[in-house]
Amino acid sequence: MPRAPQTLDAETVRSWCAGALAALGRERAEIDAINVYPVADGDTGTNLYLTVESAARAVNEAAEDADVAEIIRTMAHGALIGARGNSGTILSQLLRGMAAVLAGEADGDRLARALASAADAARRAVAHPVEGTLLTVADAAAAACAAGGDLVSVARSAYDGALAALAATPGQLDVLRKAGVVDAGGAGLVAVLGALLEALTGEAPARPAEPAPHHPVLAVDPVLAADCAAGAGEGPAYEVIYLLEAGDQAVDRLRDRLDALGESLVVVGGDGLWNVHVHVDDAGAAVEAGIEAGRPYRIGVTHLETRPEPAERAVVAVLPGEGLAGLCAEAGATTLVARPGETPTAAELTEAIRRAHAREIVLLPNDTDLREIAAQAAEHARREGIRVALIPTRAAVQGIAALAVHEPGRRFDEDVVAMTAAAGATRYAELGVAERQSFTSAGVCQAGDVLGLIEGDVAVIGRDLTTTAVTVLDRMLSAGGELVTVVVAADTPDDLADTLEQHVRATYLAVDTTVYQAGAGAPPLLIGVE
């Protein structure tokens, strides 16, 4: 039998990360099934898996000669930028807390201190800690190995302490007791600590064949889970998550503001980069708070529903601008915000499909450049057993038109046909500002010129945003139309939307106009004509 290591080296951390991903992959469905707190939406196992998947991806890309301190920091950073959901966000902070201690000669005593640091960091990141959750299990793991010792004994004590604490969670949180389950996030942490022990010993830790009778670990009955969650009170309607570049003082103010807006607030990270998670009724206000604090990106807004079982059908849409994303989220879509100059990846789109938590997905990329990436995400989701229809929407206004006719009660194929027809019947235009001199299909433009693009081609070059917008609108309506959709960004002239609306009313008597606010990060103006 090989001699157990006395210090934690880089290769062992790499094995731990890979093993944690494998363990969560095996247990993801089981953890999803027992997820009843804080929202019974059946995605805790998936969120933890995706968080560790991001960590594993970062570790795999690290230099081969990286030392243990660098690898554990890389693992923590990867988890931070890829954290999903309440439990995934907390897990990323646990790893960050460990990374702050595990540098240099990482022996058993230092591992014990790292686990204590991790538990403390995670608890401080949660606005209102609740016992009987992942936090309780993390505290128990740290307490069980506080005496220190050799590396393996510390890891084994932490695992055993976590396992015992997990079994006790139903006695600490009433919603778990009523559903007859242990905490899902805590179960995920036990899997991660078990992977650490296996990486050190080469043997998977034994878990009890069946739980103690007074602490059952059973797949939760869907109806019972919904009843238990409903008994805990009506929760907020939306989960909002984003990465944020901001200073410490700005984040302190953000915590106070988000705490007043909602619940399940977790803010993790540091050194200028943070991951923000909160459940709110006003998703737009949560995003605006992030904009005031710094630069939010990778913004995700998910409609929360108390259901451990997947929905039958959902719409996933990529949108430019937080305001437009919030609008579509209120209409029931799961959204992914595309920041200026940042193209969403296939992995991010796949994760958005998973967040939608439905058996059938209608995917709206809303950008010509995203069609191939969206196709990759759709194919990946299909391999996971999700039925996906990709509607090749080329602009946000086409996505809005498709979402407007979405009917979940229709047969899937009929719904997709109706949404595709609505998108195809919507001609689109976009106004932007030229960054440099260039040759276009409408002539030569100079830096600072306003460009009016119709169906992706430059059709008008102007000096003034409002005047150019009117010219573009007239060209589009010369071919006919019954409804004009105008989407304005946050930094456009205050009277732009009113001017366009009045122009349509005065010039085209039978044409209606609808105006939406795109918020920050969107092109100055989007126009759709149906």
Report on this model:
A hairpin with a 2-residue loop joins strand 12 and strand 13 (457-462). The longest helix has 24 residues, at 10-33. The chain has an eight-stranded mixed beta sheet, sandwiched between helices. The protein has a six-stranded mixed beta sheet with strand order 13-12-9-16-14-15, with helices on both faces. The termini are far apart. With 530 residues, the chain is an alpha+beta fold. Helix content is 48%, strand content 19%. The chain has 19 helices and 16 strands. Helix 2 crosses helix 3 and helix 6 packs parallel to helix 9 (184-201).
Rg (C-alpha, Å): 25 Å
Please estimate the helix content: 40-55%
Biggest sheet, in brief? 8 strands, mixed
Strand order across the biggest sheet?
2-3-1-4-6-5-7-8
Distance between the termini: 73 Å
Low-confidence stretches: 209-233
Computed structural class: alpha+beta
Write the layout of secondary structure elements.
Blueprint: H1 10-33, H2 44-60, H3 68-82, H4 85-99, H5 108-125, H6 134-144, H7 151-168, H8 174-179, H9 184-201, H10 222-231, E1 238-245, H11 248-261, E2 262-270, E3 273-280, H12 283-293, E4 295-303, E5 311-319, H13 322-330, E6 334-337, H14 346-356, E7 358-364, H15 371-383, E8 387-390, H16 396-404, H17 412-424, E9 427-433, E10 438-440, E11 443-445, E12 450-454, E13 457-462, H18 465-477, E14 483-489, H19 496-507, E15 512-519, E16 525-529
Parallel strand pairs: 5-6, 5-7, 7-8, 14-15
Antiparallel strand pairs: 1-3, 1-4, 2-3, 4-6, 9-12, 9-16, 10-11, 12-13, 14-16
